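Hi team,

Filling in the usual template for the complex we talked about on Friday. All components are listed, including any nucleic acid strands or ligand strings, so the model treats them as one assembly.

SUBMITTER: L.P.
PURPOSE: interface mapping
COMPONENTS: two
RESIDUES: 401
SEQUENCES:
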Amino acid sequence: MSAGQLAASRHWDGEFVVYNNLSGDTHLLGADAMLVLHRLQQGEADTAALLAALHEGADAPAAARAALAAELEAMLDDLRRLALIDAAPC
Amino acid sequence: MLTVAALGPAELAARLAGDGLHLRTAGFSVCLRSRIDSVARGIGLLYADYPLLAADDFADFRLSLERPAGARRWFKPQVRLLYDGNSLFQPLPLAQAFPMFEWGLNWCVSSRANEYLIVHAAVVEKHGCAAILPAPPGSGKSTLCAALVGRGGWRLLSDELTLVRLADGALVPLPRPVSLKNGSIAVIRDYLGDAVLSPAVRDTVKGTVAHLKAPADSVARAAETARAAWLVFPQYRAGAAVRLDALSRAQSFMRVAGNSFNYSLLGRRGFDALGRVVDASAGYALEYGRLDDALALFERLAGQRLAERAA
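RESULT (copied from the run log):
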């Protein structure tokens, strides 16, 4: 999460609206993006940890895992673009 | 309490031309000054049911409509609107003086009343449940609103500004004349039969405009708040069958936020207030081509809500 951020959210039927107190903007997010955001609210996490959170222990085939990894990258790009998260220095 | 109707035309014109006419429009007090005949006629016609205030009462908004001095008094005469003595807007042709008052008062509320989340939406109520109708110009929002309050038995809270009280999410009425444009003027005149309408004013930035008098009962009940029950996004399409498609609450939230005047200004308080409205409201996209069909649909919605409450 970006420093100083206290995002507020509400959800209905698997869709989330998120208020970004830093930008003043409100965003409509899906359940997966919200799960990633919640995980990052708890502390920094790398891609592997975020993927694990999305997998929730499911024993998915390699192709599905690769697709999910690609979706996660796109999701992280979106969340960065919306100023909801920052990339931490390696 | 005395209302504007208690003043004869001469007394009304004299007050407007003198220290100003003090009247209450729901939660806001207004002091209006003007020597322009069409303004006095418009106030007399459309604001007859509004409470009069004493000349020394506090006014939330002090407005003055006047004719600029100089050649413009004679060539293409104009009117300008002063707010607290300051001219904030470009002058308009004199014939647009009364619509300019309506637009100016809308501006006052939408830019100053930040104790409310203000949504660009009509809002009507029946059986204590309110339908909020957010929509951009040209969607048929005001036409539908006029039909609902003029013939459907719904109470007018506002045709233009939905006020959501930040503290508790209650919808606070602001019943004022309904703004009709272009083809909808004749449609509503024909549909309501006994409608009281101001004279049509042509060639405004919105096209031809006229204002429909708010129902007296709605004005009398201006202190009675309502609770949101539906968020309906209307769209008129000539010849279309009536169609109601459910929207997710999150989609409704985003669409209402996009139709709000001060959502961003209010920050987290606006987010929370709108969240309470959406919590309580079923969201729909409505397409309609006939007012009868749309009114029947709204009646079904109100009936369902009554039945749910009784169950």
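MY TAKE: DSSP finds three helices and three strands in chain A. The interface with chain B takes residues 8, 10-13, 15-17, 19, 21, 24-26, 28 of chain A (CB under 8 Å).

Thanks, L.
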